Predict the structure.
Amino acid sequence: MRAPRFFLSTAIALATLLASGLLVSGCDVTPPAPPPPFMPMATLPQLMHGVVDPAADVLWASVGSIVTKDGVEDFFPRTEEEWILVENAAVMLMESGNLLMIGDRVRDHGEWMTMSQGLIDAGKLALTAAQSRNPDEIFRVGGEIYAACDGCHQRYWVEGADPDGAAPAAR
């Protein structure tokens, strides 16, 4: 009869040791820090008018051609400062895609998020083109940025919305 009592006391001792180890190790675990709070300050229209539109305009106006009676004149950034302006505009477009995915700017978690990611992707292409000082690629990517913007506007544009983001009054 000694064998069962030995096994029982050994099992109790092992269970006690295991429980003690779990308690001690649990005391050493610090809970993960909460993520930083996001506090969107601008409304969606303010973000579009103050950041996205100006950045896209810089990019679109940076390259092109003018046809006159004297011929075709191509224009593109020629100085380091001009290329840096285009790079900065591309960065603003990339990060604007992220800003569109925060807080009450989000219109839905499907197409809205996909289209916002499309703006990020187009902005990355624009940044790469600007960093490589490639006017033809800036021109091509400008079309992708336009398509990203237009696709979103076709789906989500609210005619008559005020600059603070309020919906238009019912008629």
